[in-house]
Amino acid sequence: MSNYFDLSAYEGWVCGDCGVALVPGKVDIAYMGNSFPVELLVCPKCGLVLIPEELALGKMNEVEKALEDK
Amino acid sequence: MDQKELREQENRCIQEHAPACSATCPVHVDVRGMTLAISKGDFESAYQLYRKSVPFPGIVSRICAQPCQPACLRVDLGGAIEIAALERACVEFARPDEEAVKLFPQKSKKVAVIGAGISGLTVAHDLARKGWQITVYEATDRIGGGLWQTPPDLLPRDVILRDLDLIEKMGVKILLNTVVGRSGGNGHSTFLGRLLDEYDAVYLGIGPLINDIPDLCLDDSGQIAINPLTSQSSMEKVFVGGDVLRVSAQYPLREIPHSAILSISEGRRAALSIDRMLQKVSLTAARFMEGSYTTKLYTNTSAIQAESPLEPTQLLTFYEREVAETEAARCIQCECMECVRVCEYLEEYKGYPKKYIREIYNNLSIVMGTRFSNQFINSCTLCGLCGEVCPTELDMGVVCKESRAIMVEQDRMPASAHSFALDDMAFSNSQKFSLARNAPGTTSSAYAFFPGCQLSASYPHHVGEAYAFLREVFPQEGVGLMLGCCGAPADWAGRKDLLADTQAQFLDQYDALGQPTIILPCSSCYQVFQEHYPNVRILSFWDVYDHYGQQQFPEAAFAGEVAVHDPCSTRYEGHIQDSVRNILHKLGAALQELPLSREKTECCSYGGLVWLANRPLADKIVQRRVQASPVDYVTYCAMCRDFFVRAGKPSLHLIDLIFQPPGSPIGSLKSGPGFSQRHENRWHLKAKFLKELWGESMPEKEEYEQIKLILPSDVQQMVEERLILVEDMQKVIDYALRTGKRMVHAASGHSLAYFKPNTVTYWVEYTPQEDGSFLIHRAYSHRMQIGKEEQT
Ligand SMILES: [Zn+2]
């Protein structure tokens, strides 16, 4: 799913709690018993994850709909 | 609804029933298919269809008595289609020189066919094709029987020879000049006994020689007794057809009516029985609609123009190609499709109820794998128009609603389909809106006003006036007030559990008020009360207003004509529709009726929660409705009105017209409040009632609800489209403030946080303001979970 948004557009985001810049990292996202690994921006200290709007409304929405009709 | 009931519903759809011509034809020639092909110039396909039902196309197309013609729906619309002439055209233009007949591999069992008339030859043809070994016994020197008595100008001899030639080519053994005789032989006393020694089955297709067959039982009228379904005689292996059936031992000289097409039908049905007997399967299973019958197919011909054939035909007429094509194009192409024609949803999926219910049936039976019908089941508005126009009253809404309940039971209903409306319902039945009180200063209520959730959200100001009006009308009886949601969203979503909760909550409040008669301005509520609160007496607010309300209005409320839109939930509530029209007349309205109104009214797309489950389809549904007339609409359902305005149609709600102070114009294009505003309006309405009527105040808002958000208009529109409420965003910011979990962007100063209050994760990008409020830049949501899914 990493192809569906541009990680570089999210440069400059910092974890508010830890004060460190978010870095690319693999995260699982799951729905209705199916799980997918995605490359996202993650806080290296506390693991806080950033889901970009274009991923949420684009590919994730598509996958949700497909899984719901299964 | 269990699977058996689903099957019953499926069988009510008549779309797949045969057109009248084919049903009446004893061999069910697919006339509709033929005319369609011919009208496109495809005589080959038409000929193949004909050949499938008629083994001797040259002969039959020339002498067929056309029992189909009187049944043709064109009869009174220019004259029946000239079916036999079209059949002759197919034979003429498309018959191959060598007829290709696919024969099954030869089998060992043998059948004797006695009599080479047309029924016997049909038996020989059909059984030879199946691979059985056939011997035909014919007493004369040629096969064809009575065909040879037809005048040669009608039926040229070469046509007979050419058609019958096929029988021999199929490997049938023909014994001419062979009389089976009256007596037995080979140690048998009768000829049937002798034949059954040699053959596994016998077909008797002989002339009127009934007295020569002593083995077979006769019926009371002296005719050979056969099973009318199978043509089996009193002897298991002997089947009977042809003219011998049409005479009686008591009146042997009677006139015998016969026709080639009837004889073929008899032969064909006997051949099927013989084939089944030889294969040792049931002779009677699944045999319906054989021979001539009356179809159940309904075809609406009200829009069909009368049109006569280009030229009158006789049995000797042969068409030119173009004439045949023109004549074939006159065919109405009978089909029902009554519901599909009036429903955007049924049209959208390119089928008809029988097909759809079959798919739903499969969908609900499949345990694993892809199910294509989920969205289909959730895309019906449940409006009932299909059931109203259907000749057999099949209502897809009933099927879809029950199917949704089954999906919920099977834990397969996608949460995203309805959760927004169900959350909205939960809001309305929470302390934020729900209320049940006797009128101030009274201790019981003969009546209670139940404005419903949507009218209260769209027209909170008028709800107060409506309640005041009712208290004036019934000053002695006591008119209580009940705020809440009737449970329609739960009903539509198939959530019987949530509907039961709602019913229980309502009935508690209702009992506490002394079981008053409930006065309802919302027709969706009215429908839900009719169906799910059978013991609660209800009244329509509009009936009450028509009777007790203002009878004259000082100035006309309308400049020009308006069309009244009946909400689909009033389909069978003619009294409400009448009251509304009465009130509109008192208001001075020049009323126009929409082409589909009253019991044929259409849904605005709010029904059945289609606007949530299938937004693109919902848009088409509302467009179809607003385009039904160019004049402004007036209606009496808040959702219909708001949906029409959102679709660009100037529309008014009746409540606006009766309670708007004179001189203040009503915006017919003023959009209804957004989703967050609707919650806000309900909350404030309850607060206002509590304060003004009972001197009480609302419970303190929760902490997160006090977070102040600033939404620029583009953001307002964005969250509205994404179904994100102010309270959702407040919860995200509250969470970020409490936990510190958020992301910050140094350059812009924006913060980004997320929170998952229930099943949806909401994201909000915002900037804290100096005054403690939060400027929202955007918000979005998703249902997929971050990290491993928790087990449910
Ligand atoms: Zn962190």
What does this structure look like?
The complex is a heterodimer of chains A (70) and B (792). In chain A, 23% of the residues lie in helices and 33% in strands. Chain A has 70 residues and is α+β, with helices and mostly antiparallel strands. The relative contact order of chain A is 0.25. Chain A has one domain: Ubiquitin-like (UB roll) (Roll). Chain A has a 3-stranded antiparallel beta sheet with strand order 2-3-4, with no helix packed on it. The longest helix of chain A has 16 residues, at 53-68. Chain A has one helix spanning 53-68, and strands spanning 13-15, 23-31, 34-42, 49-50. With 792 residues, chain B is an alpha/beta fold. Chain B has 6 domains: 18-99, Fumarate Reductase Iron-sulfur Protein, Chain B, domain 2, CATH 1.10.1060.10; 110-278, FAD/NAD(P)-binding domain, CATH 3.50.50; 338-413, no CATH class; 416-548, no CATH class; 561-671; 704-782. The two termini of chain B are 27 Å apart. Classes of the chains: A alpha+beta (70), B alpha/beta (792). At the A-B interface, strand 1, strand 2, strand 4 and helix 1 of A face strand 18, strand 19, strand 21 and strand 22 of B. Strand 2 (23-31) of chain A pairs antiparallel with strand 22 (785-786) of chain B. Zinc ion (ZN) binds next to loops of chain A.
